[in-house]
Predict the 3D structure of the following.
Amino acid sequence: MGANPIDSCAKATVRLFIDGIPAEVREGTTILEAAKGVGVIIPTLCDLPGLRRRAVCRLCVVECDGGGRLKAACATEAWEGVRVVTQSPMLHRLRKTTVAMLLSDHPDDCLACDRNLSCELQALAYRFGIKKGGFFQGGVKPSPRDDSRTIVRDLGKCVKCARCVAVCQDELGAMAISTAARSAAFHVCAPYGEALCEGPCVFCGVCATVCPVSAIRQADDTDEALDAISDPGLTPTVAFSQEFIHGLREALGLAPGSLGLEAATSLFRHLGFKRVFHRDFFESLSAIASARELEERLARGERLPVIAGCGTAWGNFLGLGYPGLAPLAAKAHGPDDIFGILGGEGPIPESARDQDGEKARKRPHTVVATTCLARKYERLMPKGADPKSYDLALTVREVAKLVKLSGLDPRKLGGQRPDHASSEGIPAEGPGEGIIALARTILSLERAGAMGRTVPDKNLVAPYLELEIPFNGKSLRFGLALGIKNARAALDKIASGESGLSYLKVMSCPGGCLEGGGQDLRMAKRLRELRSSQDQFASSIDSVPLFHEGEAFATFESLRVKNLFYRAP
């Protein structure tokens, strides 16, 4: 973890000079961090907060104590009395040459690149005034590889910083990508050169958020979304979450508080979506279905815990890495699948009307607006005997693109309430107090993971957030693992019989859904810095009330959604 460069409470400090500026930092602080603490920004491509120091790109070299002693600032700890020079004619030439060499072997399709104006290599080229590489041009570039319609790997743009590999292996613990060969042949690849979907990849997309260029990026489905919105035979229907709202606000450069629930609903309707739902109702239904599943396993005396992941790709990881635990995987549908089922086939009334004032009776086209890149992968997976899920998943970055294409200003569109599921005319039989208690516990875990925060008044017990509640004379333990590395630790305990958990929820991303792979890149960077500078990641963002919670609890049994949302083994 990166150290805080300015910490007056530190027991051991060192004093140094950075370009003549005196600084005092905690022992173990790197020169790069110390310089940032006094307002000196040293260029780098490979450094990333919270990851081990690798010193791959060599852009951050600095002079220490004169005499031409060059050190990589990202991997060199400050020592007492050192005089650091970060800017000099020699260092400028070295850095400019390094960037020019990278550009010589890099495609010049900036205008067509999805990272245009947010590319770190492009920013460095502008900083050093480089318009052309000036060196030999590389050989034939490999074509981009998109074997999942989720993550596109374009090795022709790779600058070999290996950030993606460091995140996947050291932080996530997924081990889905690695490096191969050396020197000019060095490249990033999946194990044995296979497709990502054939290995342990959970398609979290964090690798795409940390790539400084566009060598790993998300697949773009905005054209498909535009086609669906303009199709007269479809009723575009969307569901979005609270963490999505915050990400979209950041992506559009809006001030805090300027894009709330009603403003976001109005924005989606102006984009052309006929029905707009908040995800909370479907989250509540999913929690109730999960609670029912746990109750039935307890009643049958089956092995516990129920292991619930955050998508289909997580199931692939569990089956490959822990085949003995695969039978414990949850059978209950997640909220997005439930939205896909109810939004397309169930009893949710269509509130949108056509020009003649009649209710639309066209085929719904369900779209999940999400911070999670894995939703793209999940919607393409075969569902077996289950009904088809949602039609499309759009990330924060894609919806922001649609908004910018439309020319809409969300601040001037007013506010509208989202559509509500209706239980009108359905007797409120309710699933019982015990199931409600289990469902609320599961929902609190999922909300904690979605919003990247800990549940109030509870202790964070590594490697997961742990809650304990009484149920039918027993004490049940619930765990939440944020990140695959933490999930591995929890699964190892379950496999050895040391866990004692009744229910485990796994979020693939270390910062929860708020830091998902479909998040706005600037916000993802800021959240990473926040998380890496604290012992536990706690967002200041408040979750919204569950508008449909009571309705979901009352509707669950009477709709017999158990048969829709939970398939018994």
Observations:
- The first helix runs from residue 31 to 37.
- The two ends are 43 Å apart (CA to CA).
- The longest strand covers residues 474-482.
- The chain has a mean pLDDT of 81.
